């Protein structure tokens, strides 16, 4: 396989582009280079084959963006982004001949794609997906929420319009010539997010790049360049021109990233959150009455980190990363600003903030175009997150435990983790007491579940049996009878059909029916 150059070079001038004088340790750059060679060894054969086909047709082709960045981070990818001067009409037959399936869903944005099945590559391999995009630049009409697409004519011009320098590197195929006109490799080694061109111009062209900055901080663990940060602070209101769906997608990627707290802090500190998630920065003004050493904003970020730590592996109860749990941790206290009251003696209360917060969470997630199930689940967890605190004040009856399980339904395991994470007190004795109380509650749930099949609590009689016993037809009376028997089941546990029949007839007689 052709080797990468010993120094990063610009393919046009073939001159070294190495790191700036005050840049990263050259050893760090060399380590990145070695990782890239190992990753490209996996990715390159298919890319080289495609590059040879494009060259034979008279077109350049280059790997760009995330796959190149990730190669230097030691991450091989089977999803390859490439760019070319060829138009979609010219590129499509070339990738169709290369792949086993192809599509042109992104044609209006200059993109066509193809898939090469794993069978071509031997045992243990995976499918390779490529998307080939014509050199382009994205720009925004100030009155439109959709980007305008303009095709370009050079690779360097295409790279200049990328969001950050670490994503503005390319590898020409089939020769594997590394192209880095904006010192992206140096920034990658230094862990810095910097725009290839003036950040104000870049963010004005596509305001969503400001959200991507926060997302990449969360994904890569990088810090934001000072100029880029200042530009976001100045231009934060510009994000409002971007569609809710695109903002939602970036927020989702941020929350599912390895370091979501760092990304959220960028959103809040730059003012972006004021426009996309205003409930979060609003928490900085509130002091949590249970944890006076921190404000509710810091408490919320701690809850998020603790909830993430309680996610499980693929075979566990809550496989991570779990979007619903992370959203619930982020939004569980957003009702506090609306419910804050100053009490006599200097205390502060937030009565019913969980109910108010559930409504606010639902409203915000709907505005961001999250799906109905996610909206309902996050709102329900927000509403239930304080329920446990009554348990520590006095032992619950079995009935109360059954209601806790039934009200949580399929969200119970997430509720366990949210409730445990909500305890962020520095008082070790109090923390130990809360943990012991919740351990006890979970043990009681397990005991009752084993005895009573709590996950599927239903009355001892179904609707058909109710109608037969009472001699009635389908209607409101059947529903009321069913709910009454369910209440009895909650309160007393399994009754058995005979006792349930007696209870039903007693209830029916008391109604004067």
Automatic annotation (TrEMBL):
Q: Which domain of life is it from?
A: Bacteria
Q: What name appears for this protein in its UniProt entry?
A: CCA tRNA nucleotidyltransferase
Classification via PANTHER family: MULTIFUNCTIONAL CCA PROTEIN (PTHR47545:SF1)
InterPro entries linked = HD/PDEase_dom, HD_domain, HDIG_dom, NT_sf, PolA_pol_head_dom, PolyA_RNA-bd, tRNA_adenylyltransferase, tRNA_CCA-adding_enzyme
Query: Which Pfam families does the annotation name?
Result: HD (PF01966), PolyA_pol (PF01743), PolyA_pol_RNAbd (PF12627)
Cofactor(s) of this protein? Mg(2+)
Spell out the coiled coil positions from the record.
424-458
User: What EC number is given for this enzyme?
Assistant: 2.7.7.72
The ranges of region (Disordered) come to 1-25
Q: Which UniProt keywords apply?
A: ATP-binding, Coiled coil, Magnesium, Metal-binding, Nucleotide-binding, Nucleotidyltransferase, RNA repair, RNA-binding, Transferase, tRNA processing
The record's section on PROSITE patterns has: HD
Q: What is the lineage of its organism?
A: Bacteria, Bacillati, Actinomycetota, Actinomycetes, Micrococcales
Native organism? Cellulomonas avistercoris
- Segments forming domain HD: 296-448
Q: Which GO terms describe its molecular function?
A: CCA tRNA nucleotidyltransferase activity
């Amino acid at each position: 396989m052709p080797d990468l150059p010993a120094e990063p070079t610009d393919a046009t001038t073939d001159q070294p582009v190495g790191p700036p004088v005050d840049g990263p340790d050259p050893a760090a750059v060399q380590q990145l280079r070695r990782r890239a060679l190992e990753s490209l060894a996996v990715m390159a054969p298919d890319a080289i084959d495609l590059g040879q086909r494009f060259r034979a047709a008279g077109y350049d082709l280059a790997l760009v963006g995330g796959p190149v960045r990730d190669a230097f981070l030691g991450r091989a990818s089977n999803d390859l982004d490439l760019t070319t001067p060829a138009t979609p009409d010219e590129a499509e037959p070339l990738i169709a001949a290369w792949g086993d399936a192809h599509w042109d869903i992104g044609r209006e944005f200059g993109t066509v794609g193809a898939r090469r099945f794993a069978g071509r590559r031997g045992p243990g391999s995976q499918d390779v997906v490529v998307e080939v995009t014509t050199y382009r630049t994205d720009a925004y009409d100030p009155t439109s929420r959709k980007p305008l697409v303009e095709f370009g004519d050079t690779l360097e011009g295409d790279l200049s319009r990328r969001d950050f320098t670490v994503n503005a590197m390319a590898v020409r195929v089939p020769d594997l010539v590394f192209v880095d006109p904006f010192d992206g490799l140096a920034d990658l080694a230094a862990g810095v997010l910097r725009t290839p061109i003036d950040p104000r111009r870049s963010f004005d062209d596509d305001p969503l790049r400001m959200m991507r900055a926060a997302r990449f901080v969360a994904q890569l663990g990088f810090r934001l360049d000072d100029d880029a940060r200042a530009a976001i602070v100045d231009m934060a209101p510009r994000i409002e021109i971007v569609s809710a769906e695109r903002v939602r997608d970036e927020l989702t990627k941020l929350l599912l990233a390895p370091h979501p707290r760092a990304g959220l802090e960028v959103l809040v500190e730059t003012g972006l959150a004021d426009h996309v998630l205003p409930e979060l920065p609003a928490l900085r003004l509130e002091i949590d009455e249970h944890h006076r050493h921190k404000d509710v904003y810091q408490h919320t970020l701690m809850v998020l980190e603790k909830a993430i730590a309680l996610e499980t592996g693929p075979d566990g109860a809550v496989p991570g990363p779990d979007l619903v749990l992370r959203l619930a941790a982020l939004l569980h206290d957003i009702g506090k600003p609306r419910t804050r009251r100053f009490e006599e003696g200097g205390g502060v209360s937030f009565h019913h903030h969980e109910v108010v917060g559930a409504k606010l969470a639902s409203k915000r997630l709907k505005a961001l175009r999250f799906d109905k199930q996610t909206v309902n689940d996050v709102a329900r967890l927000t509403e239930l997150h304080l329920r446990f605190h009554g348990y520590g004040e006095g032992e619950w009856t079995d009935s109360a435990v059954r209601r806790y399980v039934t009200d949580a339904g399929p969200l119970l395991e997430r509720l366990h983790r949210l409730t445990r994470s909500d305890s962020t007190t520095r008082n070790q004795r109090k923390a130990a007491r809360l943990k012991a109380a919740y351990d006890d509650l979970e043990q009681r749930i397990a005991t009752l579940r084993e005895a009573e099949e709590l996950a599927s609590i239903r009355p001892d009689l179904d609707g058909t049996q109710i109608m037969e016993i009472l001699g009635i037809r389908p209607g409101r009376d059947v529903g009321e009878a069913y709910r009454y028997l369910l209440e009895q089941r909650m309160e007393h546990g399994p009754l058995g059909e005979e006792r349930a029949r007696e209870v039903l007839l007693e209830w029916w007689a008391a109604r004067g029916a």
